[in-house]
Structure formats: structure tokens, C-alpha cells
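=== RUN LOG ===
request id: a7f3
mode: sequence -> structure
chains: 1
length: 74
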Amino acid sequence: MLTATVAERGQVTIPKALRDRLGIKPATVLAFSVKNGVLTAVKVVPNDPVADVTGCLGADRRTDEWVAELRGAP
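=== RESULT ===
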């Protein structure tokens, strides 16, 4: 078990072995929760803006048809 000491300002350094194992780097966002006296930190994975819109146009038309419609008739 790895341990860390809470500093005067409430800061805790996550042990390097855990940071490396979990891919926690500077600017990584962590979400904290408490349940039954257990503190849990979860790495927040940002949404991929491309994945958020993938498939939103439907599959009934090809991409070039959508682009032609958006550009308008020549």
C-alpha cells in the first residue's frame, strides 16, 4: 500500500508509481467522491468532440451529398 501525507493547505502528492500506472500527468483532472468514509479519485476523460458528433447526420446519405447540400447548388 502506498501512502501520502496531507500538507498544511490540504494538498496531497499522488505517488509517482500510481501517476505512471494511471497516466496522471500535469493538468489531468480528477473527480473526487466519498462513500461510506472512502475517498475515491477518478481520472476525468475529456469528451472527444469528433466522437460526440459521429453519426449525427444519419447513415442514409453519403458525406459528399451532405457537403454538396451545405455548399449549395453551383
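=== NOTES ===
The radius of gyration is 22 Å.
The chain has a mean pLDDT of 87.
=== END ===
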